[in-house]
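I have a small job for you when you get a moment. Would you make up a two-line entry for one protein for me to read? No commentary is needed, just the two lines. Write everything out right here, beneath this request.
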Amino acid sequence: MSSTNSREAGTKRSTTWIITAILVLVSLYFVIPVLWVLVNATKTTEDLFSTNGFWFGHTVVLWDNLKNVLTANGSVFPRWFLNSLLYSGVGAVLATYFAAAAGYALSKYDFRGKNVVFGLVMGGVLVPGTATALPLFLVFSRLGLTNSYLAVLLPAVVSPFGLFLCRIYADAAVPSSLIEAARIDGAGELAIFHRIGLRQMTPSLVTVFLFQFVAIWNNYFLPLIMLADDRLYPVTLGLNTWLSQTNRLPQYYQLTIGGALLSIIPLAILMLILQRFWKGGLTEGAVKE
């Protein structure tokens, strides 16, 4: 009996070590690029090419580099940054609300073709954004909406994955008996959705918002084909514009790296603030009672 327990304990320790090693490797995979950006944002252009990429240069000029980022090209970077906040913030809020409304409706109402609608929406999850970018450009071009804020905002308010998550979570977290009780008390359907449905679905809403915000913030291809005015660029497209000039002007390397460092800050803050809701939204909405 004792030998069996010893073998089981040894197996558990081995499994723990293997899992820990895998987690460490995955963590390094994500942390190393951020570390590289942070270290190289402190260097001069000369040190960038003459020192190891993961060690500091002879002179630490982080604040000078960041100041140059904020003032270069007529202080265009702050505008790109605000554009990204606009696209991501407004797009994520609207996408979350629409996903919640649609998911709640598919979960709590019975109507003909409900499963067909849900299946079509799930098909949208399988379609990559790059495949829809060109058709969207042609449609928006006909409507005269290209090279405008709406050209990036309107596609961002649709989240098939968000609808899927909200439906699953509404099934698990919004009791039908509570909805019926509200109806008996005379509450309208919109009031029930806003006062009961949204409150019960809060963890899933935060999860959808976080996913959508990050997706819009990192989006590059759609703004590339939709926008021609650099004043409308998000951070991703603006930094790529700077990077394309590094062959002629090496100092743009530092502007690009410094801008990349600043662009990480909102995502890091958002993740730290919303991570507990994010974990709850993924786990609680995954099981239906």
Residues 62-108 form the longest helix (47 residues). The chain is about 80% helix and 0% strand. The radius of gyration is 24 Å.
